[in-house]
Design a protein that fits this description.
- By secondary structure, the chain is mainly β.
- 2% of the residues lie in helices and 46% in strands.
- Strand 17 and strand 18 form a beta hairpin.
Length: 363
């Protein structure tokens, strides 16, 4: 299998490395695990979100959802970034002190130019600031490039978490995991993965299918992508087999699905994030959570999104939990594109910063 490093250049240098520090929580002892939405609303104009959460709960040592979301803006394809901007809907819910928080999980730009920002709404106090249980998810719209945001609204009344959002031929696709279990028993029962679709620029969403995974016990997280021929692939993580996540294919945009399969990742994969960049498929995430050599941030490549290489560690874990990640293809006004990869990384116990890498095709 071809080594991706023969076709691409990683910035800031050969892996593993420290990446580019994007959100530095260390001076104030803060943390930021989930909520890494990325969106390009015009060529080279990007919003990059990250959490700003308390690390005071000693049970989880910074693995916390007790806080709000912030974002920074670039208008020059990542050369420079603005100062942090507080995301208003997450901050308003935190300030209300009703025991819930909103994490900005994914975002997408519609054909009309609006940004749709999807939130995980979750518990932030009952279980020691650790998010679960989940509540009904919601999303907000911005029509001015993220300067202002609408009030959040739900697209389903069921509790759960949005794991991925894509736009394809004008339609918005949402991968949703319906689950409200508490920590300690989470994922011990069957819970459905569902595909919601909007064909009116995010005004309404309809349930297109319940994705027929044979079992979701022990499963969480998820990622999806379209092939050039229109097929849709969905991957989900299995905590009982971190080497072999499940995947399933649809030939008709999610109306019907094929059989359940598994793919092999030699260094494990948790919270997988999938994307195709210049004909090469990439998957990144945490190198598992159980057993040896786990917790690192790892990048895999593939020619077909099914058969994967040995994996490349982008950054090694020296502390606790991290490697919640996302990616985005960013375009500059000259027509070039770059792959932006963002991840949390633990700097002290489970307190995390946000770091970034750029992947460029070799000229």
């Amino acid at each position: 299998m071809e080594d991706w490093k023969t076709r691409f250049i990683l910035t800031p240098g050969d892996p593993p490395n420290d990446g580019i520090l994007f959100a530095d929580h260390a001076p104030l002892g803060r943390s930021g695990h989930m909520g890494h939405a990325l969106v390009e609303y015009a060529p080279g104009k990007v919003l990059a979100f990250y959490p700003n959460c308390s690390a005071e709960d000693t049970r989880w040592n910074g693995h916390s959802g007790y806080g709000w979301m912030e974002y920074r803006r670039t208008t020059d394809a990542g050369k420079t970034w603005s100062e942090p901007i507080i995301e208003p809907n997450s901050k308003a819910l935190f300030d209300a002190q009703v025991g819930k928080s909103r994490m900005c999980e994914k975002a997408v730009t519609t054909d009309s130019g609006d940004i749709l920002l999807f939130y995980l709404t979750c518990d932030m106090v009952t279980n020691g600031h650790i998010w679960e249980p989940d509540f009904a998810p919601c999303y907000a719209k911005s029509s001015d490039g993220g300067e202002t945001w609408s009030e959040p609204r739900t697209f389903t009344d069921a509790p759960g978490r949005v794991y991925d959002v894509l736009k394809k031929d004008g339609a918005i696709y949402v991968l949703f995991f319906q689950n409200a279990e508490l920590p300690g028993i989470a994922h011990s029962e069957e819970h459905p993965y569902q595909l919601f679709v909007s064909e009116d620029d995010g005004e309404t969403f309809t349930l297109r299918a319940e994705i027929p995974f044979e079992s979701t016990i022990g499963c969480l997280y998820g990622t999806m992508a379209f092939f050039e021929d229109g097929r849709l692939i969905v991957y989900i993580y299995d905590e009982h087999d971190e080497y072999n996540p499940k995947y399933i294919l649809s030939d008709d945009g999610g109306f019907t699905w094929g059989i359940n399969r598994r793919a092999f990742f030699p260094q494990k994969i948790r919270n997988p994030q999938l994307i195709n960049f210049h004909g090469t498929w990439f998957m990144h995430g945490r190198s598992g959570s159980f057993g040896k050599n786990t917790g690192h941030f790892i990048l895999y490549s593939s020619p077909d999104a099914i058969h994967w290489d040995e994996g490349t560690f982008l950054r090694m874990a020296t502390e606790g939990a991290g490697a919640y990640s996302n990616n985005l293809v960013v375009h500059d006004p000259a027509g070039n594109d770059r792959l932006l990869i963002q991840s949390s990384h633990a700097y002290d116990k489970n307190k995390t910063n946000t770091v970034m890498w750029w992947l460029d095709i070799r000229k």
